[in-house]
Design goal:
The structure is a homodimer of 224-residue chains. By secondary structure, chain A is α/β, with parallel strands linked by helices. In chain A, 40% of the residues lie in helices and 19% in strands. Chain A has a 7-stranded parallel β-sheet, with helices on both faces. In chain A, helix 1 runs parallel beside helix 4. Chain A starts with a helix and ends in a 7-residue tail after the last helix.
């Protein structure tokens, strides 16, 4: 009975996600679903990305949070269009929430939409929200055991961004182990070591995004 | 319809939680539900706590994880009885899961059971699992905006443990702001600054636990 309800929810969600992806694809917009624990650095990564790619990429952000518009305010200060979705306590975004705000964005002008999901390494990984690809941010302060403990999000993510590497000298963090575990779960995932504080490694992230955007414009991305 | 299903789940869960609490209370055992993001330091806090209180407190741990027994293995190495619950991808523990493993513990010998919940700042806060009180671990690396972004867990928690303060010199973290926000959400919460790496501040945590255990033995704790 519970399984039946869940199946219905996911089936309905997947249909709406396909709608969302069809809409953004009609505009050639690359759509990224950005995941990670609370405080992993998702918003910081977006702040740097907006500033760095301002001249090359027309980028908008959809911010998902339980409450508050704190992250949306940070994004707005960087000068990018941003829409806030508050889930009112809900643990993940779903496709209907995204569909409900799409018409607030000027889709004709955009190259990329980044949807920053609710800070949660579990539930958001289960829901397609219309993205072309998911990326996950893992802070090295969270410890190297996280890929094996939360495998779904790493299996789903096309890119794994290991953030806060500026703190590595003060942590016991086994970088080789985390890389081996990510590779065992998802061998094709792009893996980057970055610091949104110092800027280390972010060039690789920007390059990865630009490849995705170019692929989308060339019609290479297919959802699902 | 969805709301109805959720109401039924929570009602059933609360009845089983009351059963769990009645069982542990019959033995005078203080039961703590330990919450926090992935990598906040819940297991590290327990490792230190087991070692420090070994001579004074008979303590067992129930470990909740999606997959793996990594945390249970760390606890077992400290010499405490430990039971692993794997949710198989589920984002929180519920009371039935806890009830299902209680008879694997020697309840006659225990002063305290700590249930380490799934690493998730959202969903576990919604479920009573039979505990006397919840505590939340927040790593300062997660940023000072977390109480306002995830208010329920801070509203529910009797103690807020701010962990990894040894990293404060390398972070932009506004300690005054986080304290003010926790106080605005839950003025009665005990608030501690600790480092499970260096041991800073942990004496206050041990004292808080000992008071809870003494109160429980004196019959002061009531669930719900």
């Amino acid at each position: 009975m519970e399984i039946q309800v869940m199946t219905n929810i996911l089936d309905k969600n997947d249909r709406i996600a396909a709608e969302v992806n069809a809409i953004v694809s009609a505009h050639g917009i690359f759509c990224l679903n950005l995941l990670g624990s609370p405080g992993a650095g998702k918003t910081s990564l977006l702040e740097r990305t907006i500033a760095e790619l301002a001249d090359e990429v027309n980028l908008a952000v959809i911010e998902g949070d339980l409450f508050t518009a704190k992250d949306a305010e940070r994004i707005a200060r960087q000068g990018a269009p941003v829409i806030q979705i508050n889930t009112g306590g809900g643990c993940h975004l779903d496709a209907a929430m995204v569909k409900g705000v799409l018409d607030k964005l000027d889709l004709y002008s955009l190259d990329m939409i980044v949807i920053e999901n609710v800070g949660n390494l579990v539930c958001p990984a289960e829901f397609n929200i219309g993205e072309d690809v998911k990326a996950v941010v893992l802070s090295v302060t969270e410890g190297e055991d996280k890929p094996l403990k939360y495998p779904l999000v790493f299996k789903e993510a096309g890119a794994v961004v290991l953030n806060k590497v500026d703190l590595l000298p003060y942590l016991n963090f086994d970088m080789a182990a985390v890389k081996a575990d990510v590779c065992s779960i998802h061998p094709e995932a792009a893996l980057m070591e970055v610091s949104c504080q110092t800027g280390t490694g972010l060039a690789g992230w920007y390059d990865w995004l630009k490849v995705q955007i170019a692929n989308k414009k060339a019609g290479c991305w297919r959802n699902g």
